[in-house]
Please model this.
Amino acid sequence: MVLAAALTLQFKNTFGFGTATGVTGQVTAAGKPVANVSISDGFSVVRTGKDGRYSLTPHESASFVFISIPAGYAFPHENQIARHYQLLNEVDKLDFSLEPLKKDDSKHSFIVWADPQVKNKLDVAQMLEQSVPDTRATIASLGADTLVHGIGVGDLVWDNHALFPMYNEAVAEMQIPFFQALGNHDMDYRLGDDSTSDQTFKKHYGPTYYSFNRGRAHYVVLDDVRYLGKEREYDGHISQQQLDWLKQDLKYVAPDDLLFICLHIPVYSHVKNNEDLYKLLQPFKHVHILSGHTHYNENNIKANVYEHNHGAVCGAWWTGPVCEDGTPRGYAIYEVDGTGLSWYYKGVGQDKSKQIALYLEEADGQRTLTANVWNWDPQWKVEYWLDGDYKGLLSSTRGLDPLTVKLYKGADLPNPRPFVEPKETNHLFLTGIPVEVKKIKVVATDRFGRKYTSEI
Model:
């Protein structure tokens, strides 16, 4: 579904800040009004009445009016880039036309791409020739009738904004609607402060925070990258403006619905005012934060919030097959059924059953087994067998993945981006192995009861 041609043309040719004193409009689908739909300028949230109409007085700093697409309707897009907004540009009437879905959307799936982060044509080639076909195959495996959308959680490019069209080409080829979040490498530098650092991103993708719905799931995209006004200096922070908007947006979400918060910088470890966000999320039973930025894969559970900090599409900045923690470069797949949710991580070029890497190292007559179970959380179970005999559970420990040490450790590695270094991770499992053992088997059982086996 594509927005009206006039809107698309206006978006392509004009970008300015709205100064309309009042905006009205109507939300319709198949010619009929749609009630109880949230409309926002990023400052206030209003709802459509029974006649599908709304009235909004935009804030003087507002750039867009956007719709929180309700459940049961297709996502408006232009070549698969989500177009859920209209530009405020001296207009006083903004209508939204929706397309009803032909099937129940309580069951659906979505893909999370974190940090494709392309810098040059060589990076783009890897993205288009490896990551995109792999993702397309995964989408096809979900079933032809499955509703699937994508979310890019930032660092779509690597400071080279001329490559946004190449990211857009990747999205178009995946053939599913994609929503975007702002990353630190997607910002404009040297244009002022945080209030002006997102201008180029907005020209391509619209507002930097918004929401949408599908089935019993409410999705929120936030901007948690605060530019500090000097070269590439930034920190993790969610503005009070966004928090105030989010409080209004969440008033229309049931406490037992699924709630996804999508952003770039991980909240649990890198966002300075994360407690302000957690406070707003307290009333909800099923909260999942979806983040990127770190180029490693780590799951963190805090009270009612499960944060998935995803491994990168680019891995270690397109220099090798794995991220800095040994997680394969790849992406995550989430499957929603009502308020039920399951997920897995998919390494590019690997079957989805591949969830463990095993390493056997020998030194001073001793052998050590390292199992890297990259999407592990405390509800997983990791067991091992030696020569067919069950030996019990393995416990997680922090350490360096052996492959990352080989590929990335040292001032000259990897070429051509030697700044990449191995990072400690909490999803390693180590044990000593007697020298006479001939066969090793490790089985990891995830929180959904799915078993993954790897053998040496």
Summary: The chain has three domains: 5-66+86-98, 107-347, 357-455. Residues 1-19 have pLDDT under 50 and may be disordered.
